[in-house]
Q: What sequence folds into this?
């Protein structure tokens, strides 16, 4: 099994100008809810990887 790579995929980006950290699900595991573990910023944008998978339906 090789799920490590997927877990490490950067899915969110912190919009804090002084931070701009790219966060993987692993990074978000370390914090409560969704916020930047580096600067504590709560505004993250979801990044769109080219090969985005559709999960669930709307
Ligand atoms: Zn940040």
A:
């Amino acid at each position: 099994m090789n799920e490590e790579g997927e877990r490490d995929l950067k899915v969110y980006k912190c919009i804090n100008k002084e931070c701009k950290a790219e966060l993987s699900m692993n990074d978000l595991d370390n914090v409560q809810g969704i916020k930047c573990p580096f600067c504590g910023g709560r505004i993250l944008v979801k990044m769109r990887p080219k090969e985005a998978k559709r999960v669930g339906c709307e």
Notes: The pocket of zinc ion is lined by residues 14, 16, 19, 21, 36, 38-39, 41 (CB under 6 Å). The longest helix spans residues 25-29.
